[in-house]
Amino acid sequence: MLGFVSTSPVFWIILTSLLGFKIYLKLRTGMCKSTKRMDGKTVIVTGANTGIGKETARDLARRGAKVILACRNLKEANKARVDIVASTGNNMVEVRHLDLSSLGSVRRFANNIINTETRLDVLINNAGAAGFKNKMTADNLQLGMQVNHFGPFLLTCLLLGLLKKSAPSRIVMLSSWLHKTAKFDLYNLNFEKWFDTLQVYSCSKLANILTANELSRKLKETGVTANSVHPGVVLTDVWRHLPKIVKLPFILMARLYFKNAVEGAQTSIYLAVSEEVTGVSGKYFENCEESKLSKAAMDETLAKNLWEKSEVMVGLSPEEIHF
């Protein structure tokens, strides 16, 4: 058998192809080259206790920013804080509780920020998850759509006043290339007509882009920019809800070909700090450069309608509107 492996041209062709593909992916990985400091700036990163969010927070803390880790799991968030402070020497890293599956939690978090912070320079809506079962939250919203879209939508709306006060400021929405596979239906945002786990994720990621694009129009000439990002296919806890039958082979493949968390954080960091994107808004980035959107993601009417429907579904009141 070993002799066959060592002499078989098919084996070596396959091995060379796999290695070549791995090298190709590494070469395409964009890295944020900006050396800009963030001293005196305040940043919120949601879902910052692990993965892309944690590495994004670490980088911004290293640049001197005050970084607020907005997380559901406070135990893990505090562990992340200790690690980030130790590796950066920046003590201005704080943990605040935020559960995107509860609109009440989102409002409590936002009120806490408004009452305690004098400025907010960057809001990074990083938190998200895939593989949710068909479950409704206490707010009568589909769980995956609430965590990935409705929760971040409400949070962003509530913090717009502080972001405008702190302008120039930036909003970064993490999305995914899977937005291109979305079968989006404005009248099925809760997936009551039909349900598909992958489509919940794809539709929520399309909703992230549509939200960022609509924000860019609503915030025109305010000094607040809003952009969306595909971090790459990254091995993080976002996949923790996958069914067990596919989880093991998926993770084995992911370890070979997916980006690690540091690599996955680069485009978020780029949009948060880079001078190159100053004033740039309503764009979609991948590997630290602008990327193409699907036709649906560029649909201004769809974005406007989604925004209006989302306002109703999260119960946004007139006093919570800051644009």
UniProtKB/TrEMBL annotation:
Gene3D superfamilies reported for this sequence: NAD(P)-binding Rossmann-like Domain
Pfam families attached to this UniProt entry: adh_short (PF00106)
Keyword Transmembrane helix: yes
Classification via InterPro entries: NAD(P)-bd_dom_sf (IPR036291), SDR_fam (IPR002347)
GO MF annotation terms: oxidoreductase activity
TM segment ranges: 6-25
Keyword Acetylation found: no
Keyword terms of this UniProt record: Membrane, Oxidoreductase, Transmembrane, Transmembrane helix
Protein name: Retinol dehydrogenase 14
Gene name for this UniProt entry: RDH14_1
